[in-house]
Amino acid sequence: MGRRKLEIKRIEDKSARQVTFTKRRNGLLKKAKELSVICDVDVGVIIFSSRGKLYHYCSTNSLTEILQHYQNCVAMGPGAQTGVRGTREEKSKYAGLLKSGELLQIVDRELGETCVDDLTVTDLVHLEKQLEDALIQIRATKTHLLLDSISTLHEKEKILVEEKRRLEEKIAGSKTDGRTNKMIMDLNVIADSQMTEQ
């Protein structure tokens, strides 16, 4: 037997509608992720539940970037879309991590207006995963910045060590010059005293 054809209309039973929404939402987000990976394209999906809850997926971790790209394409007109896209590597250079402002907006949206008791386990798991992913990205950025700072300090240290070495050589050279001058003066004094004795 094949699959039965489902008539597309609003589901009247509230609990059945919620179950269908959850299943189809997860299926849609899964398909969006697969499309992104298999075809190497940028995908952004935004879903609002009947209660106004936001669910989204973004293949570049920056939904703002995809929306900006969309707005640029729409603003340029239908024929101008070819050649606008760069390579994935070029875009990944600019594709930032979840910005702290975006993260705060997500948390505020999920927890600020809604009572935590209203959230389903799936919603909480989804929010927890977003927070964990954002925390991992923030830690990676922090580590990267610290390593850059350490590298810069090592470069400054090398420059200072080299400058110190040059100054020590200069001081040693001036001491040698001072001894040479003293020896010349001593020889001149001896020579003068010998000339006066004669």
From TrEMBL:
Protein location: Nucleus
Domain K-box as annotated: residue spans: 87-177
Source species, domain of life: Eukaryota
Domain (MADS-box) ranges: 1-61
Coiled coil segments of this chain: none
Broad class of the protein's primary localization: nucleus
Keywords assigned: DNA-binding, Nucleus, Transcription, Transcription regulation
Keyword field contains Amino-acid biosynthesis: no
GO biological process, alphabetically ordered: positive regulation of transcription by RNA polymerase II
A GO cellular component entry from the record: nucleus
GO MF annotations in UniProt: DNA-binding transcription factor activity; protein dimerization activity; RNA polymerase II transcription regulatory region sequence-specific DNA binding
Name recorded for this polypeptide: MADS-box protein EJ2
Species per Swiss-Prot/TrEMBL record: Sesamum alatum
